[in-house]
Write a structure and sequence with these properties.
The complex is a heterodimer of chains A (about 525) and B (about 325). Chain A is mostly helical and about 525 residues long. Helices cover about 70% and strands about 5% of the residues of chain A. Among the domains of chain B are: about 1-95 and about 170-180 and about 200-230, P-loop containing nucleotide triphosphate hydrolases (Rossmann fold); about 245-315, Alpha-Beta Plaits, CATH 3.30.70. The chains are: A mainly alpha (about 525), B alpha/beta (about 325). The interface of A and B includes residues 6, 10, 21, 354 and 357 of A.
């Protein structure tokens, strides 16, 4: 009864204290929305860097930007083309450009000398994330650049369509010569056909197809080696077999010619066989030619599909984490300032002289703060779902789990707040400590950098930060409908209880008879 | 005289009825000079007990020992029959404490503050409304019960402190310098309230540095540098300080025969000439001396312009006591 009465009084006190400060209400409720809305509207999700291209000082190369728009694009926004490297690098200092790409004039020499041609890239950026992004973009850019060159090579290595057409033409001419009794013409056409088919076989041998190596790599085995064998490689082999068959029939024809058999039914059968083989070979070669070079260069593409049950974007992803971070901060500051303020105001004197113990008092404060912040958290979640369109997968089934995550996070945060109060003598000390915790939370709770990117010790350290659990579990629940791991929840409750006990121990020092 | 100079046996203390009993208490923080030195006194039920002394004399330290914040270095303290070091909640609910400063929440209204304190004192939700009203009416704050504490004047804040102390109807009320820093009219008003509370049966333990407030009290303990200078009713203390009564005598002219005649008054101790017509006599018994002087002056045909007992204020008493102690 005492606890209920004291708790109700504290709920009333905190509610009235908050309601009487409209600016505080506005900050707590509207603040996160303004932040998230500005973030959503303002974040372009793509970094671009002003870039200067430094080209060799050859008279035939112009410095007109439009001539290079197709070469330098996307992440790197071409702002100037220069033939002077020093001037370009100086532009990095003045801020005119962030990146300078130098095209070396001896690049081709290097390649033919068996070395990679290296294009130096200079950039000036303090932000390590930006720096990583620039370097990654350069890697992608170089890969794309090389891919274009390889595509050109593939295109050039394809069997020539003209050769197959010529074979068709000459085969028809051979039939006409045989009909008309022109044995000399027929002999010539047989020779031409033999030469053309030999050229075509050679072209087919030189044509590289993915998966066509004799010693397949692990990648080929893992991927679609069999598919290549059946669909592609067997196609070239069949085309070659057709051409070899045609060559045999040409030999048979020539033998007949040598016996003055120009147009016997047997010779007509040979001619028909040649036609069939040439037709079959041409069909297959046409099919091979129709494969775009882009596919040949990148025969395998990985197509990713996120199995998360909702659409993920930056607002959706960050909203639950922002709410949890906000609730943690409010809980810590509310609890810490409440106790410190009681000491500073002197209210603690009334409490400690009265018939209420430190445990009762902190329990009443804990319950009242928890209920109030839980209410605030529920309101904020309802608002981000209703107004900002943040997904809420299986909300009807999982609402209790959302409340449980909020409650556990708030519980541990209030415990942390009591601990902060025990370590602070003044309100400013408590605020400073709360800010330190806020900073620690931003860095080590997965808010800024995923926890998995830290060493193991730091990953364990994150268990002591309520937001680390709360943010990830609220994201899982709202965005993917996944229920929290009960063990993690128990760990957080244990950590929260540890904070509470430490806070209580420090608080009770004020109750000690001196 | 209730002043105890010799140590009281513990068994005797436990059996005794006083609301407060302090016996041979010394309080020392670390190795510094003791703040309280071998202090003993008792407070009877229904009394207004005043602990009087200048700043730093140890008043608040004693009060803090009585409410269980400090523990005596030596000696014994009993409040409501219990050792403050081991107060149970039942005992704590029987007394109220009014700190010197305003310690309530400025962002809450008068009503909300007193409700919070009522809940701390385990007053039931439904039953406390009447008592809250009584407490606020007692300090004339009922009409401003909805006003924020931050919007109250200093005097009103002090009255709110008092209302919060009284809301649970404590038997014993501790007030640490309740009138410090407030205007004389409000001070007088406060003392009227204390008197009413005393008449209702509450025991009041109050500290003050306004020496003249001692006259409002039933018992006074005067403290200086942690030592008890005097203890008793205000009149007893006056008696002790002056060593008798004082008479103001106004004559047409002060002459040697008159002074000789005055010296022959029974119980005469000394005289002090104020000016050519006025003098102040110290005698053992004021009433008897006045009668004697009037009779002997008539017999010797001397004219008296006026003669009356003089009641020195407590400031003067305090100074005299200090002087005596220093001597």
């Amino acid at each position: 009864m005492t606890l209920l009465g004291v708790t109700l009084s504290f709920i009333r006190k905190e509610l009235l204290g908050t309601l009487r400060q409209p600016s505080l209400m506005l900050t707590i409720l509207v603040g996160p929305f303004i932040i998230l809305a500005l973030f959503g509207l303002g974040y372009k999700n793509k970094s671009t860097y002003p870039t200067i291209l430094v080209i060799p000082n050859w008279p035939q190369l112009s410095t007109n930007i439009s001539d290079y728009k197709e070469v330098v694009k996307d992440t790197f926004v071409l702002v100037r083309v220069s033939k002077n490297l020093d001037e370009a690098r100086n532009a990095l200092k003045t801020g005119e450009a962030t990146v300078v790409i130098e095209v070396k004039e001896n690049a081709l020499d290097e390649i033919y000398a068996g070395r990679n041609a290296i294009f130096p890239v200079y950039y000036r950026n303090l932000n390590p994330i930006d720096s990583n992004y620039i370097e990654f973009s350069l890697y992608v850019y170089a890969t794309e650049f090389n891919k274009t060159l390889v595509q050109q090579a593939f295109e050039a290595s394809k069997p020539k369509q003209g050769t197959t057409q010529k074979i068709d033409e000459v085969t028809n001419q051979l039939g006409n010569s045989m009909k008309s009794g022109d044995i000399a013409g027929a002999r010539t056409q047989v020779s031409v056909l033999r030469a053309l088919s030999a050229v075509l076989v050679q072209q087919l041998d030189q044509f590289y197809l993915p998966g066509s190596s004799n010693a397949p790599t692990t990648q080929q085995k893992l991927l679609v080696k069999q598919l290549f064998d059946v669909v592609v490689k067997s196609g070239t082999d069949q085309a070659k077999a057709d051409l070899v068959n045609a060559q045999k029939k040409l030999d048979a024809l020539e033998n007949g010619f040598n016996q003055n058999d120009l147009n016997s039914p047997a010779q007509q059968a040979n001619l028909e066989s040649i036609r069939t083989s040439v037709h079959s070979s041409n069909e297959k070669i046409t099919k091979l030619n129709s494969i775009p070079p882009g596919v040949l260069v990148e025969p395998i593409l990985l197509k990713a599909k996120n199995e998360i049950a909702s659409t993920i974007n930056y607002i959706n992803f960050y909203s639950p984490a922002v709410i949890i971070l906000l609730l943690q901060h409010i809980a810590i500051t509310l609890a810490a300032l409440s106790n410190v303020r009681d000491s500073q105001l002197g209210t603690i004197e009334i409490f400690r002289v009265g018939p209420v113990g430190a445990v009762q008092l902190l329990t009443a404060k804990l319950i009242s703060f928890m209920l109030l912040i839980l209410l605030l958290g529920s309101l904020l979640i309802a608002l981000i779902i209703a107004i900002m369109g943040v997904p809420s997968v299986n909300l009807e089934q999982n609402w209790w789990a959302i409340l449980a995550v909020l409650a556990a996070t708030i519980y541990a945060s209030i415990g942390l707040g009591f601990l902060v109060a025990g370590l602070s003598r003044t309100e400013s000390q408590a605020v400073q400590l709360s800010m330190v915790i806020m900073l620690t939370t931003i860095f080590f709770s997965g808010f800024l950098v995923p926890i998995s990117q830290f060493i193991e010790a730091i990953q364990y350290f994150s268990y002591f930060i309520p937001t680390a659990f709360g943010a990830s579990e609220l994201e899982n629940l709202l965005l993917d409908g996944r229920i929290f791991d009960p063990l993690k929840m128990l760990i957080l409750l244990g950590v929260g209880t540890l904070y509470l006990l430490l806070g209580l121990y420090l608080y009770r020092r004020q109750y000690k008879v001196k | 005289m209730d002043v105890q100079t010799a140590p009281l046996p513990q068994s005797e203390l436990a059996k005794a009825s006083p609301v407060i009993r302090v016996a041979n208490v010394t309080k020392q923080f670390g190795s510094a000079e003791p703040i309280i030195k071998n202090l003993s006194f008792e407070v009877e039920p229904g009394q207004i007990f005043c602990l009087l002394g200048p700043s730093g004399s140890g008043k608040s330290t004693i009060m803090r020992m009585l409410i269980g914040v400090y523990k005596p270095t030596s000696g014994e303290v009993w409040v409501l029959g219990a050792d403050p070091d081991h107060f149970k909640n039942e005992t704590r609910a029987r007394f109220g404490y009014m700190p010197q400063q305003f310690v309530l929440y400025p962002e809450l209204s008068v009503m909300d503050n007193i409700r919070l304190v009522a809940s701390i004192y385990q007053m039931k939700l439904l039953k406390r409304t009447k008592k809250i009203q009584e407490a606020l009416e007692f300090v004339n704050l009922w009409d401003v019960r909805k006003r924020l504490a931050s919007k109250l004047s200093g005097g009103m804040q002090r009255r709110l402190n008092l209302a919060c102390t009284l809301v649970h109807k404590p038997e014993l009320i501790f007030m640490d310098e309740p009138t410090a820093g407030i205007d004389p009219i409000l001070r007088a008003h406060f003392w009227e309230r204390f008197k009413e509370l005393s008449e209702q049966g509450h025991t009041i333990f109050v500290t003050t540095q306004y020496v003249n407030e001692a006259d409002y009290c039933d018992k006074v303990a005067i403290l200086s540098e942690g030592e008890l200078l005097a203890f008793g009713t205000p009149d007893e203390i006056r008696q002790k300080a002056i060593g008798g009564g004082i008479i103001n005598l106004s004559l047409e002219e002060i002459s040697s025969p008159i002074l000789t005649l005055l010296k022959q008054t029974p119980g005469f101790q000394n005289y002090e000439i104020i000016d050519s017509q006025n003098l102040r006599l110290t005698v053992e018994n004021t009433a008897e001396a006045i009668m004697e002087i009037v009779t002997s002056f008539q017999e010797h045909n001397h004219q008296i312009v006026s003669i009356e007992p003089y009641r020195p204020d407590f400031e003067e008493i305090f100074v005299r006591l200090l002087k005596k102690t220093k001597k």
